[in-house]
Amino acid sequence: ETGVTQTPRHLVMGMTNKKSLKCEQHLGHNAMYWYKQSAKKPLELMFVYSLEERVENNSVPSRFSPECPNSSHLFLHLHTLQPEDSALYLCASSQVNAGTDTQYFGPGTRLTVL
Amino acid sequence: GQNIDQPTEMTATEGAIVQINCTYQTSGFNGLFWYQQHAGEAPTFLSYNVLDGLEEKGRFSSFLSRSKGYSYLLLKELQMKDSASYLCAVRVVGRDDKIIFGKGTRLHILP
User: Fold this and answer.
1) Residue B82: φ, ψ to 5°
2) How close, in Å, is residue B96 to chain A by CA atoms?
3) What pLDDT, on a 0 to 100 scale, did the predictor assign at position B52?
4) pLDDT digits 0-9 by tens, B55-73
5) Which residues on chain B are in Cβ contact (under 8 Å) with A40?
6) How many CB pairs under 8 A join A and B?
7) Which residue of A39, B6, B106, B111 pairs with B22 in a disulfide if CB–CB is 3.0 to 4.6 A?
């Protein structure tokens, strides 16, 4: 596996379900990110982990709960979501303090909340 | 506040040249990215500018003017596979270091 991988690629869940999104980066980076991409809206940064510590939480509702057990893995735990949470959830990684800090994205999880 | 503007949609013809503009009003500017995103896929990195001027990379070039808060992405010899969304993103540093994305420009290539 190379780059940034995400599973599952597609997820349909009811509002009472609990599910988790998984992201893994194989680039040796030290920072990981969760973004939400809704139709006709810019990418919205949700969480940032740098060196396995959460350094940013952009006022995301508590029904989204991130977890970063190590520098290569990032999870997004979902519970009691709302239909407006349906979107593409993108994970990214970067090497912080390495010049450009370019972010490399995974393929995303297309989430539909019924 | 932080704001990034780019056209919502553009159309161009295969083999032609197209320029996608991006203007930004941000504090703590420290670089501008362009990403390409095909429908249903992840954004992929195209270019990064931090100094004024033109950066050329094959058929794609990116220009930055920091004084004007302006950038453009120039695509030459357009191919059908260039049909995608192009995202302008600004890196800001300060109390909060982050990358802020524009809404993206959806480019349609006609044969």
Assistant:
1) -80, -5
2) 8
3) 96
4) 999 999 999 999 999 999 9
5) 103
6) 43
7) B6
Say whether residue B56 is in contact with chain A using an 8 A CB cutoff. no
Minimal Cα–Cα distance from B68 to chain A, Å?
Answer: 21
> Which of B41, B96, B101 lies nearest to residue A42, judging by beta carbons?
B101
Contacts made by residues B75-80, CB under 8 angstroms, sequence distance 24+: B75/B12, B75/B17, B75/B18, B75/B19, B75/B20, B75/B107, B76/B17, B77/B15, B77/B17, B78/B12, B78/B13, B78/B14, B78/B15, B78/B16, B78/B17, B78/B18, B78/B109, B79/B14, B79/B109, B80/B14, B80/B109, B80/B111
Nearest residue in A to B48, CA atom:
A100
Instruction: Give me the residue from B41, B45, B100 closest to A107, CB to CB.
Output: B41
Q: If you ran DSSP here, which 8-state letter would residue A60 be given?
A: -
Instruction: Check CB contact under 8 Å for A4 and B42.
Output: yes
| Three-state secondary-structure class, residue A85 | helix
> Which residues contact residue B56 at a Cβ distance below 8 angstroms, ignoring those fewer than 6 apart?
none
* pLDDT tens across the length of chain A (114 residues): 579 999 999 999 988 889 999 999 999 999 999 999 998 788 888 999 987 777 776 778 999 999 999 999 999 999 999 999 999 999 999 988 766 678 999 999 999 999
Q: Express each pLDDT in B81-106 by its tens digit.
A: 999 999 999 998 876 678 889 999 99
B42 and A48 within 8 Å at the Cβ level: the answer is no
